[in-house]
Design brief:
By secondary structure, the chain is mostly helical. Helix 1 packs parallel to helix 2, helix 3 runs parallel beside helix 10 and helix 8 crosses helix 9. The radius of gyration is 23 Å and the shape is elongated.
Length: 331
Protein backbone atom coordinates (compact mmCIF):
# COMPACT_ATOMS: atom_id res chain seq x y z
CA UNK A 1 0.00 0.00 0.00
CA UNK A 2 1.10 3.56 -0.73
CA UNK A 3 0.24 7.16 0.05
CA UNK A 4 0.64 9.87 -2.59
CA UNK A 5 0.85 13.66 -2.59
CA UNK A 6 -1.19 15.02 -5.48
CA UNK A 7 -0.49 18.08 -7.55
CA UNK A 8 -2.84 20.06 -5.28
CA UNK A 9 -0.55 19.38 -2.33
CA UNK A 10 -3.02 17.01 -0.66
CA UNK A 11 -2.27 13.52 0.59
CA UNK A 12 -4.13 10.59 -0.99
CA UNK A 13 -4.27 7.01 0.20
CA UNK A 14 -3.63 4.48 1.31
CA UNK A 15 -3.91 3.06 -2.21
CA UNK A 16 -2.80 -0.23 -3.68
CA UNK A 17 0.12 -0.70 -6.02
CA UNK A 18 -2.26 -1.55 -8.86
CA UNK A 19 -4.38 1.55 -8.27
CA UNK A 20 -1.30 3.75 -8.23
CA UNK A 21 -0.06 2.11 -11.42
CA UNK A 22 -3.45 2.88 -12.95
CA UNK A 23 -3.09 6.55 -12.01
CA UNK A 24 0.25 6.59 -13.79
CA UNK A 25 -1.30 5.13 -16.92
CA UNK A 26 -4.07 7.75 -16.69
CA UNK A 27 -1.32 10.40 -16.38
CA UNK A 28 -2.56 11.50 -12.98
CA UNK A 29 0.88 10.78 -11.49
CA UNK A 30 4.39 10.75 -12.90
CA UNK A 31 7.97 10.05 -11.89
CA UNK A 32 8.20 13.21 -9.79
CA UNK A 33 5.07 12.48 -7.76
CA UNK A 34 5.97 11.96 -4.10
CA UNK A 35 4.81 8.65 -2.63
CA UNK A 36 5.30 6.88 0.67
CA UNK A 37 5.34 3.11 1.02
CA UNK A 38 3.35 1.69 3.92
CA UNK A 39 5.60 1.25 6.93
CA UNK A 40 8.07 3.90 5.78
CA UNK A 41 8.37 7.54 6.86
CA UNK A 42 10.18 8.71 3.71
CA UNK A 43 8.49 10.47 0.81
CA UNK A 44 10.24 9.55 -2.43
CA UNK A 45 9.58 10.30 -6.11
CA UNK A 46 7.64 7.55 -7.84
CA UNK A 47 10.57 6.98 -10.20
CA UNK A 48 12.55 5.63 -7.22
CA UNK A 49 10.31 2.52 -7.10
CA UNK A 50 11.33 -0.07 -9.74
CA UNK A 51 7.88 -1.67 -9.81
CA UNK A 52 6.48 1.43 -11.52
CA UNK A 53 9.24 1.86 -14.12
CA UNK A 54 7.36 0.10 -16.90
CA UNK A 55 4.16 2.07 -16.32
CA UNK A 56 6.07 5.37 -16.13
CA UNK A 57 7.90 4.68 -19.39
CA UNK A 58 4.64 3.80 -21.10
CA UNK A 59 2.68 6.78 -19.79
CA UNK A 60 5.45 9.38 -19.89
CA UNK A 61 7.85 8.60 -22.73
CA UNK A 62 10.81 10.96 -22.72
CA UNK A 63 10.98 13.82 -20.28
CA UNK A 64 8.61 13.73 -17.31
CA UNK A 65 5.60 16.04 -17.47
CA UNK A 66 4.04 18.19 -14.73
CA UNK A 67 2.18 16.43 -11.94
CA UNK A 68 -1.56 17.04 -12.39
CA UNK A 69 -3.79 17.45 -9.39
CA UNK A 70 -5.93 14.52 -8.27
CA UNK A 71 -8.59 14.85 -9.48
CA UNK A 72 -7.42 16.81 -12.51
CA UNK A 73 -8.62 20.44 -12.63
CA UNK A 74 -9.84 22.33 -15.62
CA UNK A 75 -7.21 24.64 -17.11
CA UNK A 76 -7.59 28.37 -16.79
CA UNK A 77 -7.52 30.49 -19.91
CA UNK A 78 -5.15 33.16 -18.55
CA UNK A 79 -1.72 31.70 -19.30
CA UNK A 80 0.06 34.34 -17.22
CA UNK A 81 -1.78 33.08 -14.16
CA UNK A 82 -1.04 29.42 -14.87
CA UNK A 83 -3.49 26.54 -14.63
CA UNK A 84 -6.09 26.55 -11.89
CA UNK A 85 -4.93 24.13 -9.23
CA UNK A 86 -2.07 22.75 -11.34
CA UNK A 87 0.47 22.92 -8.53
CA UNK A 88 3.57 20.75 -8.78
CA UNK A 89 4.50 18.86 -5.66
CA UNK A 90 7.38 20.59 -3.91
CA UNK A 91 9.85 17.82 -4.65
CA UNK A 92 12.82 20.16 -5.00
CA UNK A 93 15.17 21.46 -2.35
CA UNK A 94 16.31 24.98 -1.58
CA UNK A 95 20.02 25.62 -1.96
CA UNK A 96 20.61 28.93 -0.18
CA UNK A 97 23.81 29.84 -2.00
CA UNK A 98 22.40 28.85 -5.40
CA UNK A 99 19.19 30.87 -4.91
CA UNK A 100 21.09 33.94 -3.73
CA UNK A 101 23.49 33.59 -6.66
CA UNK A 102 20.68 33.17 -9.20
CA UNK A 103 18.84 36.12 -7.69
CA UNK A 104 21.93 38.33 -7.96
CA UNK A 105 22.55 37.20 -11.54
CA UNK A 106 18.93 37.87 -12.47
CA UNK A 107 19.15 41.35 -10.97
CA UNK A 108 22.29 42.06 -12.96
CA UNK A 109 20.77 40.84 -16.22
CA UNK A 110 17.46 42.71 -15.85
CA UNK A 111 18.35 45.51 -13.47
CA UNK A 112 16.34 48.26 -15.15
CA UNK A 113 13.16 46.19 -15.44
CA UNK A 114 13.44 44.64 -11.97
CA UNK A 115 14.32 47.89 -10.25
CA UNK A 116 11.60 49.71 -12.17
CA UNK A 117 8.93 47.12 -11.35
CA UNK A 118 9.86 47.01 -7.66
CA UNK A 119 9.98 50.81 -7.49
CA UNK A 120 6.53 51.06 -9.07
CA UNK A 121 5.03 48.56 -6.66
CA UNK A 122 6.76 50.25 -3.72
CA UNK A 123 5.61 53.71 -4.81
CA UNK A 124 1.95 52.72 -5.17
CA UNK A 125 1.92 50.78 -1.89
CA UNK A 126 3.70 53.55 0.02
CA UNK A 127 1.70 56.41 -1.48
CA UNK A 128 -1.63 54.79 -0.68
CA UNK A 129 -0.51 54.05 2.87
CA UNK A 130 -0.18 57.79 3.54
CA UNK A 131 -3.69 58.62 2.37
CA UNK A 132 -5.50 60.15 5.38
CA UNK A 133 -7.68 57.77 7.42
CA UNK A 134 -8.25 54.96 4.91
CA UNK A 135 -4.67 54.82 3.59
CA UNK A 136 -3.39 51.80 5.57
CA UNK A 137 -6.50 49.79 4.65
CA UNK A 138 -6.18 50.66 0.94
CA UNK A 139 -2.50 49.76 0.97
CA UNK A 140 -3.24 46.44 2.67
CA UNK A 141 -6.01 45.63 0.19
CA UNK A 142 -3.90 46.22 -2.92
CA UNK A 143 -0.64 44.77 -1.60
CA UNK A 144 -1.66 41.21 -2.55
CA UNK A 145 -2.50 41.99 -6.20
CA UNK A 146 0.54 44.28 -6.50
CA UNK A 147 3.06 41.83 -5.12
CA UNK A 148 1.34 38.93 -6.88
CA UNK A 149 1.81 40.78 -10.18
CA UNK A 150 5.43 41.51 -9.27
CA UNK A 151 5.96 37.79 -8.57
CA UNK A 152 4.57 36.89 -12.00
CA UNK A 153 6.87 39.41 -13.69
CA UNK A 154 9.96 38.06 -11.91
CA UNK A 155 8.97 34.46 -12.61
CA UNK A 156 8.70 35.24 -16.30
CA UNK A 157 12.24 36.65 -16.18
CA UNK A 158 13.48 33.52 -14.39
CA UNK A 159 11.80 31.38 -17.07
CA UNK A 160 13.38 33.52 -19.80
CA UNK A 161 10.08 34.77 -21.13
CA UNK A 162 9.40 38.21 -22.54
CA UNK A 163 7.75 40.60 -20.13
CA UNK A 164 7.15 44.30 -19.70
CA UNK A 165 6.85 46.71 -16.82
CA UNK A 166 3.06 46.63 -17.17
CA UNK A 167 3.23 42.99 -16.04
CA UNK A 168 3.23 44.18 -12.42
CA UNK A 169 -0.50 44.87 -12.84
CA UNK A 170 -1.31 41.28 -13.87
CA UNK A 171 -2.69 40.70 -10.38
CA UNK A 172 -5.52 43.14 -11.06
CA UNK A 173 -7.21 40.67 -13.39
CA UNK A 174 -9.27 37.54 -12.70
CA UNK A 175 -7.16 36.61 -9.67
CA UNK A 176 -7.61 39.99 -7.94
CA UNK A 177 -9.93 38.80 -5.17
CA UNK A 178 -7.83 35.73 -4.39
CA UNK A 179 -4.61 37.72 -4.26
CA UNK A 180 -6.26 40.38 -2.12
CA UNK A 181 -7.43 37.78 0.41
CA UNK A 182 -4.12 35.92 0.46
CA UNK A 183 -2.27 39.19 0.98
CA UNK A 184 -4.58 40.35 3.76
CA UNK A 185 -4.69 37.01 5.59
CA UNK A 186 -0.94 36.35 5.52
CA UNK A 187 -0.09 39.93 6.47
CA UNK A 188 -2.64 40.29 9.27
CA UNK A 189 -2.15 36.88 10.89
CA UNK A 190 1.66 36.94 10.74
CA UNK A 191 1.58 40.58 11.88
CA UNK A 192 -0.47 39.63 14.93
CA UNK A 193 2.03 36.88 15.61
CA UNK A 194 4.85 39.41 15.50
CA UNK A 195 3.05 41.75 17.90
CA UNK A 196 1.99 39.09 20.40
CA UNK A 197 5.12 36.97 20.27
CA UNK A 198 7.97 37.56 17.83
CA UNK A 199 8.95 33.97 16.99
CA UNK A 200 5.49 32.66 15.87
CA UNK A 201 5.08 35.68 13.60
CA UNK A 202 8.44 35.06 11.94
CA UNK A 203 7.62 31.38 11.50
CA UNK A 204 4.28 32.18 9.85
CA UNK A 205 5.95 34.67 7.51
CA UNK A 206 8.39 31.95 6.42
CA UNK A 207 5.71 29.26 6.05
CA UNK A 208 3.55 31.51 3.86
CA UNK A 209 6.42 32.98 1.85
CA UNK A 210 5.17 31.31 -1.36
CA UNK A 211 1.41 31.72 -0.85
CA UNK A 212 1.13 34.79 -3.10
CA UNK A 213 3.30 33.36 -5.90
CA UNK A 214 1.25 30.14 -5.81
CA UNK A 215 -2.03 32.03 -5.98
CA UNK A 216 -0.76 34.15 -8.87
CA UNK A 217 1.32 31.60 -10.78
CA UNK A 218 -0.87 28.51 -10.29
CA UNK A 219 -4.24 30.23 -9.76
CA UNK A 220 -4.82 28.44 -6.46
CA UNK A 221 -7.68 29.51 -4.19
CA UNK A 222 -6.80 31.21 -0.91
CA UNK A 223 -6.54 28.30 1.50
CA UNK A 224 -4.86 25.82 -0.91
CA UNK A 225 -2.24 28.47 -1.74
CA UNK A 226 -1.47 29.02 1.94
CA UNK A 227 -1.49 25.31 2.75
CA UNK A 228 0.69 24.36 -0.22
CA UNK A 229 3.21 27.01 0.77
CA UNK A 230 3.15 25.84 4.39
CA UNK A 231 3.72 22.21 3.48
CA UNK A 232 6.51 23.01 1.03
CA UNK A 233 8.33 25.29 3.45
CA UNK A 234 7.85 22.90 6.38
CA UNK A 235 9.82 20.25 4.48
CA UNK A 236 12.64 22.73 3.85
CA UNK A 237 12.17 25.09 6.78
CA UNK A 238 15.75 25.76 7.80
CA UNK A 239 16.87 26.35 4.21
CA UNK A 240 13.92 28.61 3.37
CA UNK A 241 14.18 30.54 6.64
CA UNK A 242 17.92 30.97 6.13
CA UNK A 243 17.43 32.18 2.57
CA UNK A 244 14.76 34.68 3.61
CA UNK A 245 16.93 36.00 6.44
CA UNK A 246 19.87 36.58 4.09
CA UNK A 247 17.82 37.92 1.18
CA UNK A 248 15.93 40.38 3.40
CA UNK A 249 18.83 41.10 5.76
CA UNK A 250 18.86 44.92 5.32
CA UNK A 251 15.14 45.14 6.08
CA UNK A 252 15.47 42.76 9.05
CA UNK A 253 18.42 44.70 10.49
CA UNK A 254 16.49 47.95 10.15
CA UNK A 255 13.49 46.44 11.95
CA UNK A 256 15.76 45.59 14.86
CA UNK A 257 17.23 49.09 14.77
CA UNK A 258 13.76 50.68 14.70
CA UNK A 259 12.70 48.75 17.81
CA UNK A 260 15.77 49.89 19.72
CA UNK A 261 15.49 53.45 18.39
CA UNK A 262 11.80 53.66 19.33
CA UNK A 263 12.43 52.41 22.85
CA UNK A 264 15.27 54.93 23.27
CA UNK A 265 13.18 57.82 21.92
CA UNK A 266 10.21 57.05 24.19
CA UNK A 267 12.49 56.74 27.19
CA UNK A 268 14.12 60.09 26.43
CA UNK A 269 10.79 61.79 25.70
CA UNK A 270 8.46 60.31 28.31
CA UNK A 271 10.87 58.97 30.90
CA UNK A 272 10.65 55.49 32.47
CA UNK A 273 7.53 53.46 31.65
CA UNK A 274 6.33 53.80 35.21
CA UNK A 275 6.05 57.56 34.67
CA UNK A 276 3.98 57.40 31.47
CA UNK A 277 0.49 58.89 31.60
CA UNK A 278 -2.21 60.02 29.19
CA UNK A 279 -1.32 63.62 29.90
CA UNK A 280 2.35 63.10 29.06
CA UNK A 281 1.41 61.23 25.89
CA UNK A 282 -0.88 64.05 24.79
CA UNK A 283 1.80 66.62 25.51
CA UNK A 284 4.36 64.80 23.39
CA UNK A 285 1.98 63.58 20.66
CA UNK A 286 3.39 65.92 18.00
CA UNK A 287 6.97 64.87 18.72
CA UNK A 288 6.03 61.17 18.77
CA UNK A 289 4.12 61.54 15.48
CA UNK A 290 7.04 63.28 13.79
CA UNK A 291 9.44 60.61 15.03
CA UNK A 292 7.17 57.79 13.82
CA UNK A 293 6.79 59.41 10.41
CA UNK A 294 10.55 59.83 10.01
CA UNK A 295 11.22 56.25 11.07
CA UNK A 296 8.57 54.90 8.68
CA UNK A 297 10.05 56.83 5.76
CA UNK A 298 13.47 55.40 6.59
CA UNK A 299 11.99 51.90 6.75
CA UNK A 300 10.32 52.33 3.38
CA UNK A 301 13.57 53.56 1.85
CA UNK A 302 15.45 50.50 3.12
CA UNK A 303 12.65 48.29 1.77
CA UNK A 304 12.92 49.93 -1.65
CA UNK A 305 16.66 49.24 -1.81
CA UNK A 306 16.23 45.65 -0.59
CA UNK A 307 13.16 44.71 -2.64
CA UNK A 308 14.63 43.87 -6.09
CA UNK A 309 17.29 41.42 -4.92
CA UNK A 310 15.19 39.90 -2.14
CA UNK A 311 12.25 39.30 -4.48
CA UNK A 312 14.48 37.72 -7.13
CA UNK A 313 16.19 35.40 -4.63
CA UNK A 314 12.89 34.40 -2.98
CA UNK A 315 11.29 33.51 -6.31
CA UNK A 316 14.38 31.53 -7.33
CA UNK A 317 13.67 29.46 -4.21
CA UNK A 318 10.04 29.13 -5.36
CA UNK A 319 11.29 27.73 -8.67
CA UNK A 320 13.61 25.33 -6.88
CA UNK A 321 10.71 23.94 -4.87
CA UNK A 322 8.09 23.82 -7.62
CA UNK A 323 10.24 22.95 -10.66
CA UNK A 324 11.46 21.63 -13.02
CA UNK A 325 8.07 21.58 -14.73
CA UNK A 326 7.61 25.31 -14.06
CA UNK A 327 8.26 26.43 -17.62
CA UNK A 328 5.66 24.21 -19.22
CA UNK A 329 2.97 25.15 -16.72
CA UNK A 330 3.10 28.79 -17.64
CA UNK A 331 3.53 28.49 -21.41
Amino acid sequence: MFKMIGGDGREYGPISEEQLRGWVIEQRANGQTLVQREGSTDWLPLSAFPEFTEALNAAWPGQMSPVPAVPQPSPRADSDLGQAGAVPVAAGRVDIAACLGRGWLLLGQHFVLLAGACSLVWLISTATAFVPCAGPFISLAISGPLYGGLALLVLRLIRERDTRLSGVFAGFGPAFTTLLLVGVMTTVVSGLGLLLCLIPGLILKALWAFALPLAADRALPVWPAMETSRKAVARNFLAVAGLLCLAWLPAIVFEGYSIVRTATFLSETLGPVSMWSLDSLRAQMAAIGAFAMKLELQRQFVLLLNLPFATAATLCAYESLFGPQRAEANG
